[in-house]
Design a protein that fits this description.
The protein has a single domain, classed as Vaccinia Virus protein VP39 (Rossmann fold, 3-Layer(aba) Sandwich). It is of the alpha/beta class. The chain is about 30% helix and about 20% strand.
Length: about 260
């Protein structure tokens, strides 16, 4: 476990098929249970963040076919829903299924434990994967599948934690049993191996942002101003991406990264 917490290897990426199945069983409905625990007042809280770091860097065109990987209710698409003609969401929990987002019909597909996507090659103009990969074991394979189904010159929007999120062998409040972040150097290597060109990368979710703004605005990443402050702090401390910090100063860092990627 020590090598994983040091960020030298990605925990779960070399699991056996049986270990992957067990992980999938633990995570299948784990996030939806957390969501239900938030209550009816809970809303999607990353619109301003996604717009600033991801959506604004897309070309101003319509997308014929869009895939959301782990997109739950699909609320993440609201800022660009008028640009989408066809939307498919891969989502394990049935609690999130809906017929449409505004006037756009949504087709839901349940993922397979091993991560194979039931779509032909070069099928989607745009794929989003926002904080979903850290819930699955075999990240390398799943990213290769996502790349496979993107059309040449199509886009992938990716946002993931690049910290351990604590020692996952111990209970962690507010987190699912298996989730863990992806070490940044490993994530970059996987993306390159999948022939995904980085158009834009942005560090985000600075460690103290919640402590500064949560009481003022609970959905603080829906504020353009707070997102701007967070981006400045995250960029300033981008040199400090220690995967599993052990003291206060090591914790002063961006906890996530957002990528705008284009299939080569």
């Amino acid at each position: 476990m020590h090598r994983y917490l040091k960020g030298q290897e990605l925990y779960g990426d070399n699991f056996t098929q049986q270990e992957i199945i067990e992980w999938f069983a633990d995570e299948e409905n784990a996030y939806s249970k957390l969501w239900v625990g938030y209550g009816d007042s809970h809303t999607y809280e990353f619109h301003a963040l996604n717009t600033a770091l991801l959506f604004k860097h897309l070309p101003d065109v319509s997308f014929e076919s869009v895939l959301g990987f782990g997109s739950a209710h699909g609320d993440e698409f609201l800022p660009i829903i008028n640009l989408i003609k066809s939307l498919t969401i891969v989502e394990p929990s049935e609690i999130f299924i809906r017929d449409s987002i505004l006037n756009i019909p949504v087709k839901y597909i349940k993922p397979r434990p091993e991560g194979c996507l039931p779509f032909p090659d070069n099928n989607f103009d745009l794929v989003t994967c926002l904080s979903a990969l850290h819930h699955i074991p075999n990240v390398s394979f799943v990213l290769s599948e996502i790349s496979r189904v993107i059309k040449p010159n199509g886009y992938l929007l990716l946002r993931e934690p690049i910290e351990s999120m604590g020692d996952w062998e111990k209970p962690r409040k507010g987190l699912t049993k298996r989730e863990r972040g992806i070490p940044l150097h490993i994530l970059r290597y996987i993306l390159d191996s999948c022939h995904l060109q980085i158009i834009k990368d942005s560090y985000c979710v600075f460690a103290i942002t919640p402590y500064l703004f949560q009481r003022i605005k609970p959905d603080y990443f829906n504020s353009k101003l707070i997102v701007l402050i967070d981006r400045i702090l995250s960029h300033t401390f981008r040199w400090n991406t220690i995967y599993h910090p052990h003291n206060f100063f090591q914790r002063l860092r961006p906890k996530c990264i957002a990528f705008v990627l284009k299939k080569q």
